[in-house]
Amino acid sequence: MANSTQFYIGTSGWSYKDWKGRFYPEDIKQTEWLDHYSRYFDTVEVNASFYHEIKAETYKNWREQVKSRDFHFSVKISKYLTHIKKLNNCGEIWNNFIKNVDNLQDKLGPILVQIPGNLKVNTEKLENLLQVIPSKYRIAFEPRNETWLSSEVYKILEKYNCGLVISDTPEWPTDERITADFVYLRLHGPEGLYDSEYSEEQLQEWADKLKEWGKKTKEIYVYFNNDAHGYAVNNALKLKELLKK
Question: Is the pTM of this model over 0.70?
């Protein structure tokens, strides 16, 4: 494994009430959860930004709450761009979105762009999107329609150093294709979506795969989205342990 590869292991979100007593101590306030989380993990995926605009001040506060210098927030782009406007008017929507997100400064990780399942491949729209985003931002592209999984799309992603999101779920199509100098992996649960736990054997298989991908990439981001019953934090902690072996 390339020693220079940085693994960022975390969960999709951190504000889950059923994690209290499982991961968060009973005696700390919810406003202290992010600080507690950041002592165990070095990244988190922000999904709330998909549903509504998050204020600049909120991003600034999150950045200040995290003491670690090498903590990254990956932020999911607004559904207004992907699900409502269907990748039209990209420039204006991107600018409105990123001006707040930029308050994360050095703690900003990749931007997650999730394409709805009812939107079939359109390479012109994809290229228009990637053209308006400055190259300093890392984009993780997650299509949920299998028509996007094509060599033509991969060439465009490679051209813009845009990562194809690799997902573990039977619900959506995926391809373990590396198209950028980073990898973005979302683990939704081995059985029930969001509601099943990975075994140690399954996590070892992922750890082995991640180490192989690490030979070809600079950074690897892994997010557990099986948040029910605290499965995500348990699995993320275990994967971190396995990657050190």
Answer: yes
